[in-house]
Structure formats: C-alpha cells, structure tokens
Amino acid sequence: MHHDPSVTHTVGHLIDGQIVADAERTQPVFDPATGQATRSVALASKATVEAAIASAEAAFPAWRNTPPLKRARVMSRLKVLLEEHADQIAELITAEHGKVLADAHGELQRGIENVEYASYAPELLKGEYSRNVGPGIDSWAEHQALGVTAGITPFNFPAMVPLWMWPMAVACGNTFVLKPSERDPSSTLLIAQLALQAGLPPGVLNVVNGDKLAVDTLLQDARVKAVSFVGSTPIAEYVYTEGCRHGKRVQALGGAKNHAVLMPDADIANAVNALMGAAFGSCGERCMAIPLVVAVGDAAADAVVAGLKTAIAAMKVGPGTDNGNDMGPLVSRPHFEKVRAYVDSGVAEGATLVVDGRSLQVPGHEEGYFVGACLFDHVRPGMKIYQEEIFGPVLGVVRVQSLQEAMRLIDEHEYGNGTCIFTRDGEAARYFTDHIQVGMVGVNVPLPVPVAYHSFGGWKRSLFGDLHAYGPDAVRFYTKRKTVTQRWPSAGVREGAAYSFPSSR
Ligand code: NAD
C-alpha cells in the first residue's frame, strides 16, 4: 500500500479511552471528490486488537453490574451530543465517503434513532416472570449480557451501521470492540469519542481501525463472544463460517440486488421519483438501493424508461459538500473502475444503454471518482449487470409480462435483502408482500429500511445467521437467556425425594 508523504494526520484507534495508532502499517484515506489523499489510517496489528479485547474484557464486570437505567442514560446523553455535533459528523462522512451532506445528515439521523432505542434498554431487558409454576415455586427468565462483543462494518454508512450495533450491545450490558471500514474511519471514531464524553466508561467501547488481520483476530479470539458484521456477501459468509467455527454467535449481513416491481396500474410519475432516489441516492452505494426495475408489460416499461431518462437529464452531479448536488462521487478509484467495467459488460452482453454516465466530467474535479447515472433497458437474467451487485449509479429495466414472472425472478435471485412493488392494486400488493422471498418489502415505498424499533435483515444470501440487526432482535442477539426456577422450602411445601420427572399433572 503506497503512502503519500504529504499526509500527516493519522486516524488511530480508541482503546481503553485513549487514542493510539499503530505506526508500522497505515494506508491513505482519500477525498473521493478530488481523488486526493487527505489523511491516513492506522491498520491495527494483532497485538493492538488484543489490547482492545483485553480492555473490553476488563471493563465488562463493572459495566454488566451497572444498573440498566444508568447505562441507558449514557445513550440519552449521546443522542444529544450527536445532534449537537451533527454538522461536524456529516462533514467527515462527506469528506471520506463522498455522499452529499444532506444524505450524510440522513444517515446520521437514522443512526441517532438507534441510540434513542438503546436508551429504552431497561424496558426491553425486563424479562419474564411466572409465579407458582409449581407448589411454592416461582420462575423467571432474564437476559444476561454476553461479555465482549464485536462489530465489523462497511464503508457505505460509516455513522449509521456502527450505531446499529454497539449502542444496543452496550445498553444490554456488554462491552464492545468495533472494527469500522478503513476507507472512511473518521466519523466513526468521532462518534466513539462522543460516547466517552457522554459517560461511557473507558474500555466499554473500543475502536480498532484495520483490515483482514484485525477481523481475523476478532474472529479467532476466545474472549469475543459474539460478532455482528455488515458488508459484502463473500466476506459476510467468511465471517459467519469462521466466527461459528470458533464457537461465537454471529450475524453477518451481506450484499443485495433489490428489484422494484412496476405494475401496469402504478402511478408512473410517483414511481419515477421514487426510483431516482432509490437508484442514484448515495451514488447507488446502499444495500437497500434499487438497481433493477421489473416492469410488467411493455407500456409500463416504455413509460418508466422515458420518465427516468428525463429525470436523469435534470440530475446534478458534483461534490457532496454542495447540497445543490443530487449525487456525489463513488468511494474509491478501484470502485470507480469496477462500476464503469460493469457498464461496459452490460453493453457487451446486449442490454440497451439508454443513458451513459461513463464520460461525465465535473469541472474542477477531474480526478474525483464521478460516474453519471446510467440507465439500461432490456436487461435480462444471466447478464452480469443483472446477477451481480454493482453498488453504483446503474439502473436496469427488465421487461416481463406478469406479476408471477416478476416474482419468480426475484425469488430465483441469490440475494433477498429488499424489494418493492409500485401498484394501485391492493390485492396484488398483498399477494406480493405475503409470498415474496425477501426480508424487507415496500409497497410504493422504494427504500423499506425498518425504523429503529423494528429489526433490519435480508433473506437468502443477504444474511447469514438468524437474528436481524438492531431493534427487538438486538436484545436477543446481544444477550443470553437465563431461566431460574426457585423454591424456598417451608413447612407447607416440604417434600420427600421424588424420582419421577416433575410435572403439573
Ligand atoms: P466489504 O465486505 O469489503 O467490507 C466490510 C468490512 O469487512 C470492512 O470492515 C472490511 O475492512 C472488512 N473486510 C474486507 N475484506 C475482508 C477480508 N478479506 N477478511 C476479513 N474482513 C474483511 O464491504 P464494503 O465494500 O465496505 O461495503 C459494501 C458492501 O456492504 C456491499 O456489498 C453492501 O451491499 C453491503 N452492505 C450490506 C448492508 C446490509 O445491511 N445487508 C448494509 C450496508 C452495506
């Protein structure tokens, strides 16, 4: 990895409440709008990750015994601090990820809602109680913290996705080691520092920046009891397999290829607006983005292609620091090249390229990673642009003749993260939501991302594990159930030895 000598600031780790940095291995962090390296990030050694795990382990006994309401109050204070620092956090997201500031604020807000949910932890952790399950016997089930838990997160939501994980984990009484994306580490680290300021004791949340070495250390270390992962499917599958092999509880959320079904009776103008944001917002770098429209009938297909073509012509593409832009750059030079190669492959495989964004130039930002919105018509299953996650501003239209045919395509795809149907027909919508093999479904809602008090997760190869991220499932994931059955012998209920199985017969 080359290192730009002009880069002086190194983003470090947060271990035991202190910022530290490995000097041996670093890599540059780029501003995607200019292509310039602006700082570097320390890549943790095995020893650094082990120091973070040791800190989390040492902090666990006192934190687990801290009353849930006191843990929750840290989250309430953090919510306020995040709101107060929202501009600064959004600027860091935009500077390293590239997304438009308003969109960075949106991601942060959704993250804050998870902090808010974590502040209800005392209510969520109350457990279950049954009196008199037998003569003089009471029983209760409680949610006990696991110990040291870990999270590994992707580049595309550097603020929100970490906030899906650690606030609920620590509110449930665990301690945490977070390994964020090394491509845009600064907003994530700032948020962790704000958590300390909110009163989180040192060691309860540690952040290690790094790459595969850091991830593998977390997966192999016996002190780490559970791992939450969000990223691409091949790495999700690896983290799931490797973590389970080491006896850990793992939830690993992967990639996506979300289809929107456009029914012939849909409000086309509304669908076009919805699709523009869902396909091109954040430059298509969202796991809930819509990169495919399945149009039922040629009339719907012709109308949506015409509408999208007009809307794309009016789009503004430029640096994310200007809220007047609709779309910023892609995250990195390799990703920029990969997305353009996908467009080349779509042309080579015979799809019709209606709008070609490959040659877009943003004046003054010639070295930035900008690709204009691309629109394909006549995309067919089997094409690479149909099968694979592009994670860029490339929208394809697939033409089918019936809802059944559209649903078969969706069900046969390897991913099952999100989907949506545009229609005015309640019967069709109900049939679709009931039967489709996808975890998150929208009806005239293009990005059906569950709110913080529901849980987020795809089906098929979009999620390995069973429990979904955040919301009620997070209580289940970050705690283990203990069920206690208790009797205090007294004169009335003293019994002799019984050799048959106790029952309420
Ligand atoms: P990625 O898989 O490249 O990286 C995710 C994390 O894994 C990073 O922290 C990275 O450092 C680490 N990592 C990368 N290579 C590794 C390796 N070989 N071994 C161990 N760890 C490794 O993903 P990304 O490019 O940062 O993010 C984009 C992907 O994330 C897309 O596929 C997107 O769909 C997915 N995503 C999914 C969701 C979801 O909720 N399902 C949400 C956001 C993003």
TrEMBL record:
Biological processes, Gene Ontology terms: L-valine catabolic process; thymine catabolic process
One example GO MF annotation: methylmalonate-semialdehyde dehydrogenase (acylating, NAD) activity
Enzyme class of the recorded protein, top EC level: oxidoreductase
Residues in Aldehyde dehydrogenase domain copies: 21-484
Keywords: NAD, Oxidoreductase
EC number: 1.2.1.27
Pfam families (UniProt xref): Aldedh (PF00171)
InterPro entries: Ald_DH/histidinol_DH (IPR016161), Ald_DH_C (IPR016163), Ald_DH_N (IPR016162), Aldehyde_DH_dom (IPR015590), MeMal-semiAld_DH (IPR010061)
The protein, known as: methylmalonate-semialdehyde dehydrogenase (CoA acylating)
Taxon lineage: Bacteria, Pseudomonadati, Pseudomonadota, Betaproteobacteria, Burkholderiales
